[in-house]
Amino acid sequence: MTTTTGTPILRDEVYAELAGIVGEENATREPAILDTYAFQYIAEIVVGDSYMGRPGVVVLPGSAEEVQAIVRLCNREGLKYKAVSTGWGAYGAAPEDGLVQLDLRRMNRIVEIDTRNMYAVVEPYVVGTTLQAEAMKVGLNTHIVGAGANTSVLASATSVMGQGTTGVSTGFSNRNLLGFEWVMPDGELLRVGSFEDSGEWFTGDGPGPSLRGLIRGFAGAFGGLGVFTKCAVKLYPWYGPARLELRGVSPDYDLDIPENHAAYIIDFPGWEEMKDFGNMVGEAEIAFSMCHNAPAPAIASMTDSNLSFYELWKGGLFANMKHTLEVVITARDAEEFAYQEGVLRDIEKRCRGREIVSSHYDLHYFADLVLGLARGMRKAGLRTTARSALPILRFVLEALRKGRTPDAFAKTLYLALVKQNLQARGIFRFGGSFWTSMGALTSWDCCIENAKEGERIKRSWIEKGVLMDDGAENAWGGLYESGCYGHLEELAVYDQSDPVCKEGGIGFVVDTVKATIEKHLAFSLNAVGDPMHAAYSPHVFYYHRHLAGIKEEFDPGALSDATFYIDREGTEEFIRALEAGEEIDMRL
Amino acid sequence: MLGRALADYEKDMTRCARCSLCKWPPLAQVKSIRFSQVCPAISRYNFHAYSGGGKMIVGLSKLKGRVDYSEEMLNVIYRCSVCGACDISCKYSRDLEPLEVLHTLRATCVRDGVAPLPAHRPILDSMRNYDNVWMQPRKKRGSWARKLEVKDAAEQPVDTLYFVGCTYALRPELSGVARTTVRVLQDAGVDVGILGEEELCCGSPAYTIGDEELFVENARRNIEMLNSLGVRRVVASCAGCYGVLKTKYPLVAPANFQVLNVTELLAELIEQGRLVFTNPIGRSVTYHDPCHLGRQSETRKEWNGTERKVLNHLVIQDPPKEFNRGTYGVYEAPRRVLAALPGVELTEMERIREYSFCCGSGGGAKSAFPEFALATARERVEEAENTGAELVATACPWCESNISEGIADAGSRLECASLIELVAKGLGGDVS
């Protein structure tokens, strides 16, 4: 017997067997519970509804052995399965009903933090915030993805894209993966990297087999290649206290920025200067964190409601804050801090940057700011200067009213960049949801071109009323590994409860995909799923054949749900349609 | 809010991003992996449906007719202490109302006749028949004060009414707290009175279980009576009573009195020099924030505006809506009292104030799912033990009772005590 979408209905005896593996209380077929795995953000863009397919069963395994048993049972019964860790986004589900959903929430241990070799071994439900809290206690820190500290460390390292704001000093999740424990699509267990041989996880490339590129490549398999049950990630030095002590009550937390740490927002006259600054700071290796955050999310992060954001935004004062980089420096001692800040200021000067937010809000800084404003007024006129300074001054005055210090903006910024705690405020609060586009991992120069093009395309969709008018420029991203490359993705905010957005949102995505191909802007992070592969693959050596080859080799039964990975036949059908000049539906 | 339907929250429910932020404290406050969870229900039952966001989805699915009531669905809705931690963590970033959705989900169950759960029915029946939750005759309500010399507020004018609440009044093992409270206030020169047998249940259990009709009836009777007394203020030492008197009664009818928690009054009296401590306590203490004294004690204002979109899809409220984000809960007063007590060394737990971890007793959880309530208490006990403290102080009979059970169940050496008992000790008095 099958569901309307052709998926086998779970027989009672199979359910009983699954429940036997994980324990009765860790398995369910209750529709109300199943629906909480079907409802996913961006589902409305992916399938046109808030709900993806409803799983046939959800199980909560507690160990790799239980995961193996479940996967083997799925293979025996021909059941599709998919694992999630925190399960955020449509990628955690499938469009069709009936799959076996593995929720890995019970696998939540930090197995080990190796301070000598600077790595951590984690299970799937360890998230950025918990690993960071433990790592900081021993003078280490972890890279946290841009999605936020509420996301799984393992998921971004093994299965999806994993860029974040500290990438300039910490690399990013794809690159920090040192080894992993993998329940392969047929249920066999494989440990990849040095662990298999030495019991230590210091490298993912052997002496045991290295399959890092194979299992994740650029984008990850999004659950399409079995289940990862453990992984090791590289950690980085943390030159701050074991814990950042906060004052105040939500939503206004305050803290003292640690000694020899500082946060800045630096504003540039245009994209060119911002580009040069990024490249030079990357090369100088002085920044702990460096990213571009557009004015709308930056201001949203600093305000406690949509209304307070709108009050600041509606005056249109932000036009001049468009080309900014947010920078945090963290030094071991005063001498190193003086060096880093000195270099930063020197580059800033060469790139005609101006610190519009800084940890150094003291009388001296205000004097400088006033002088700068005066100079700005002379050069650019009162209106232009006021546009760039007034919002910040207004925020500072509001902070002073609440009893905070003049550097409140810098402190909130520091907290947001170190702890990665404000993503929901900065992007989800506006209308409820967002889509991202562009975002190739490429040279910083090409990233800037992505941002420019993203802004241009988005403006037209704002004019159609499909997306929130965030000023159109809403690129987010940064530089990685000392600026060797970077990424800037274009964020587009919408309201998932609004039919106009649900129906129109995909158009924006399609336009950005086309633009990256036509204008040679490198490989977009939307290259996920068959229709997108069909759009990109003919321009990139028909890469889908390689992906499909991997999938078929490891999962001949195609049971590990590959909705967001690859299906050879589906992709080739889309390619044929595109080559025939037909429009294809980019939804899944 | 009262009298709302799930349809009123359709947009909130649809706009849940399923980000799981409702499962942790506001992320910047996470201090360790061990105590990184903030929601008792998801901590115990693990399926996403048990989280605040999960219950938003359950509400949406019910509204859309995708699911119908079942025993398991009712478990999801009621295996929850309605502590509101999810609401605080969500609202650190979002303009959504998960706690209101959760309440409305329960109210909908009651309206549809599938709730209250069998374990909750005797409590609500007791409220109807005896005006208390403990199935005790009305006459017994005043027994706790039999040997006290205290004004009867129904008979003579008083400045301050002490609202004792069902539990302090009717549970012999806890009623010493009520007597101590009266004595301490009298010692400090407060013109205090009580209602004795005339006192009614505050109605909080009916509200949290979702029986809005019963709650409103209780609240109206109470407001009418309290208004008629002409007291300047009503002081509650039960956090549950305090929370509902302060935050839910304004939704029912206007009151002509101020509502205070006893910790607020104690802090005021200490600062005025009207309570002077002479007796060192000599204990290391940690403090447990009761949910209804802390994050859930902000006065809720009825908002009947509409949603407006600007900038195409930026959602704002017209007229502007004040979201309850837990910012103005009573967090400092109990800590000021502890700080004033000689020989008290206060060590904080990791989850405190607006992101405190619930004791597990509230929302009808203790009566319907005692094993869940006890597991939650044990989690809190472990966190308290982790501070190295000898004693957990709190300011709510439900918390005190459940944490004490958690201590016993864990075989812990910790003690749990009401803050007022420590105050009495500090004053050199005995705990009665």
Describe this structure in words.
- The complex is a heterodimer of chains A (588) and B (432).
- With 588 residues, chain A is an alpha+beta fold.
- In chain A, 41% of the residues lie in helices and 16% in strands.
- The model of chain A has no long low-confidence stretch (mean pLDDT 90).
- Chain B is an alpha/beta fold.
- Chain B has a domain at 121-274: Rossmann fold (3-Layer(aba) Sandwich).
- Helix content of chain B is 41%, strand content 10%.
- Chain B has helices at 10-14, 40-45, 52-63, 71-78, 85-91, 98-111, 121-130, 166-170, 175-187, 204-209, 212-229, 239-247, 262-271, 332-340, 365-368, 370-386, 397-410, 419-426, and strands spanning 151-152, 160-163, 192-194, 233-236, 258-261, 283-287, 306-310, 314-318, 344-346, 391-394, 415-418.
- In chain B, the strands form three sheets. A five-stranded parallel β-sheet of chain B has the order 1-3-2-4-5.
- In chain B, helix 3 crosses helix 6, helix 9 crosses helix 18 and helix 13 (262-271) packs across helix 14.
- Chain B is globular and about 60 Å long.
- The model of chain B has no long low-confidence stretch (mean pLDDT 97).
- At the A-B interface, helix 2, helix 5, helix 13 and helix 18 of A face helix 1, helix 3, helix 4 and strand 8 of B.
Radius of gyration of chain A, whole Å: 24 Å
Spans of chain A of at least 5 consecutive residues whose pLDDT stays below 50 are none
Number of helices, where a helix is a run of at least 4 consecutive DSSP H or I residues of chain A: 23
CATH topology title of the domain at 121-274 in chain B: Rossmann fold
Q: How many distinct helices of chain B? A: 18
Strand content of chain A: 15-25%
